[in-house]
From TrEMBL:
One Pfam family this sequence matches: Ras
Catalysed reactions, semicolon-separated: GTP + H2O = GDP + phosphate + H(+)
Highest rank taxon of the organism: Eukaryota
Species, as recorded: Apteryx mantelli
Similarity comment text for this entry: Belongs to the small GTPase superfamily. Ras family.
SMART domains reported for this sequence: RAB, RAS, RHO
Positions of region (Disordered): 206-226
Keyword Electron transport: no
Leading EC class: hydrolase
E.C. designation(s): 3.6.5.2
Protein name: small monomeric GTPase
InterPro entries: P-loop_NTPase, Ras-related_GTPase, Small_GTP-bd, Small_GTPase
Keywords: GTP-binding, Hydrolase, Nucleotide-binding
Amino acid sequence: MRLTQSMCTIAECAAGGAAGAEGCPAAGAARPRLVKIAVVGGSGVGKTALVVRFLTRRFIGDYERNAGNLYSRHIQIDGEMLAIQVQDTPGVQIHECSLDCNDQLNRCIRWADALVIVFSITDYKSYELLSHLYHHVRQLHPGNTVPVVIVANKADLLHIKEVEPQHGLQLANMLGCTFYEVSVSENYNDVFNAFHVLCKEVSKQQTTSTPERRRTSLIPRPKSPNMQDLKRRFKQALSAKVRTVTSV
């Protein structure tokens, strides 16, 4: 996909792409905080368009079949430079009353620091997936600390809607998730706000765990036994020399 090639991917950054290139930090710059986000939902709800809109501000209406691309970009949020990795995922379906989730999708969910669950207001089946997806995420993250945002996409297509916006909001409230209704094609700010909330929450969790690691690193290391032995021998030798001089 041409757009993926024009963006700074994980592999390109790891290979040491040109310093100062768009989306990649210059050589010698401080390493930014890493935030990993997975975007999941049914087929055709606009997951790829949502990701690309957030990372590039551009809207492209037509995409090839979603192959699960991983996008990377450095973005400044609230004055802090963050290394955002966003994992796009293939569409999920319900098969015999249960989610049809393959190993690739499960790995993506486990890998993520936060998740965006997307449905389309023009597709009621994608709305029915929400609760199943949410509980599947909680099964893979049993600690219940991974932030989840529910996004209702295609808000501009009210003339063909199948889901009332308030239904998405009510379900999100019941699940304890933040909810955003967006039109990826018409409004970048709403898309940015949805990801902004997740980035802030992940950054907050990472920051609260950092002081503990710092306190641990400040614990003094035990002194080397060899060095202690050398100091003891030096003191003994010095004392013996002093006693000799005094007796003379």
